[in-house]
Amino acid sequence: MKKPVVKVDFQDNKGPGNSRRRFIKMSGLAFAGSTLLYACSEDDDFNPGGEMEPEPTPDPDPEVFDLGSGDLGILNYAYALEQLEAAFYTAVRTGDYYAGAPDEEKELFDDLYNHEVIHREFFRTAIAAATADSPEAMLPDLEFDLEGANIDINSRDSVLATAKLLEDTGVSAYNGAGDRIADSTYLVIAGKIVSVEARHASAIRSLINPDSTDFAGDDVIDENGLDPAADPADIYSAVVGLDVVATPFTANNLPAPQQES
Question: Containing H/E element for 249?
């Protein structure tokens, strides 16, 4: 593997490592190639890369659900975020993309859609297994209202701005939840997923401002060279504040950071 260089020309598709889409696709394959994808594929509804699957039909009259505590609470928290991202990219594709979208950008959004569906279905499968004796503890399928949040999926600027917001939020959310996860297996999984989310974020930023260093801008990389980490309570408030989540839920019992031994 070639060492990364400071400047990458994403528009040059002559070499195997210079395509933005190839970069994103390979990052997704690295995750999908693990045993996690095998677990997801056991779900009959799982179909990444094939025909676009319909979004799950939510309960028409849901009760207010709390994410819960401990690792289950964090899993439900991540599941809510992945449902939102998958719903957004589904809407972008359902709308036949934005007007004038070039094939390269369509293919990139196809890859992002497939990754987020993989993530969503992984959490659906993992949480279903963890709550086999108490299925009511699993976050239900959420309903989203993108139009009510003034997200115009027919506008490139709106789609890219929303994608940037969601991907940046996803990175900081996983980073902020890492020290609250007790099970090391779940922590490894979260680390794998957040690395893919960070690749999504950098690709979207490069679409918005080509040939720039925005993919690793000062707003997302701190003075220590690290991505930001946000407290789950702050992420919850930010997501609710977007006015896109039509299914109410609360996050009153998420765990505190693990104490260092």
Answer: strand 249-250
Contact between 230 and 172 (Cβ < 8 Å): yes
Q: Distance between CA atoms of 222 and 216, rounded to whole angstroms?
A: 10
Cβ-contact 122, 32 below 8 angstroms: no
What is the residue whose two structure tokens read 């220590």?
A: 224
Q: Which two tokens stand for residue 58?
A: 């939510």
Between CA 185 and CA 34 the distance in angstroms is 13
Give pTM, 2 decimals.
0.76
Q: Name 137's Cβ contacts closer than 8 Å, sequence gap at least 6.
A: 68, 72, 131
Residues 58 and 142: their CA atoms lie apart, in Å, by 6
* pLDDT 10s digits, 228-255: 899 999 999 999 998 999 999 999 999 9
List the end-to-end C-alpha distance of the chain, in Å, as a whole number: 38
Pair of tokens at residue 251: 């996050």
Point out the residues of the chain with pLDDT beneath 70.
1-62, 259-261
Contact at 8 Å (CB) between 195 and 27? yes
For residue 65, what is the enclosing H or E element?
strand 65-66
